[in-house]
Amino acid sequence: MKKMIMLVSLAIAVITANAQDSYIVKTNNVRNTGASTASQVQDASQDEEPEATDFVGQYFKYRSLCDWVEGMKFMVMPEKYDMIVNTFTDAETGKEVSSNRLRQKIMIYKNHTSEMDGSDRIHFLCQDENKYYYYRIPSGSFDNYCYGKLGVPTLAYIGDVDVAREKLKDAVLYTKTDIYYIDTERDGNGCEQVRVEKNKQVKVKAIGVGTRSFPVKIIVEDEKGNQFFQNVAMSKTNSGMRDDEFGMDNVRHTFYGSFQLADENIAASEEYSKYIGKDVHTRYATKMENINGKTVNILRLSSFVIQKIEAQSNTNYVKMTLKSHRTGEIFTKQVTFVNENVAGDIDGQKEDYYGYLFKPGRADFKGVSEKHRELIHQGRIAKGFKKNEVRMALGEPSNTVDYDNDGSEEWVYNYDGQPKRVIIFNRRGVVTGTRRF
Fold it and tell me: Which terminus of the chain has fewer Cβ atoms in its 10 Å neighbourhood, N or C?
């Protein structure tokens, strides 16, 4: 009989462990270490309630503590502070229980009660132990407490995780920030930051529990097999975060701050389809990224064909993929098609504005020697340059001065904060010299 009881107990323990562990997921590069080399990720939630027509608003409904219903599931995910201040009390013994002992255990919400001593309690059934625990509201009544954003400490809402698993299984996403994380501990919360290219196509590999405030841990994989994750806020249920904490650097820990669904990306990118396949050349020197992700200098009047333009959510910038006509190399450049707002300011850096940086068609070097072409690419001129070559190198002059007596001509270039530059042409339209004043 004792052997039978032991076997049954062992079976229950295994089933419970499997249910618990299914919510704990790790990136494929996790290392077995004894101690954490990085603190638990602190994420954030969304600025405001999304419209019901978008993915998050449609499937992830916020539930305040006032609206909790019996059966809602949470996982105990204590942070450092929770190791000092215990959250739960054993309903049978009346003794507080260490948050660390309950770590990663599933709590099922039952109800709330008002006690004879004047305190209000929120009751849970621990699925892993089949025992009851309660959280004593620090002060005031349940009705007053539930309207705040505090919720119940340590509890990450599993409901969001379950919905995310259903709706995002094997989904194709695009990265919307450049900071993600990889796990450094198999049995702990250790992690470290990694840099990832924005607007990179990735595939969802696993979804589990992240933190109390940001419960959905989404692990994705790129085309090279590299895995990384983000803990994101979805419904904000029991997040414990104020609305004013959902912005700034923390916005990347919302779903839309970190990811975009593939069909949303494609739909947004169709707006720029008229540019695909068009020839353009750079009006000025700029920087782009090559296929290895290295930033390289691109000379002015470099000609390309636009291969792809990918929109990015929550920004006016797009990722443009270009192929060099001269070398066949592939480059990417973040640009904006938005010129000026009502204040007259360019959205983003001036050199990132498409209309400022690019000009339609290939750069026309017909009749230009290789020596002059190299100087033009660098924005320089020399004696012997013709007028069309000066225009290619320096652009249109601010004004011109003609001298009727000998047919010579001067072009004046004004540069902000710099001396004026004068280009001197002889009567044949060839540069004979320059001066500044």
Answer: N
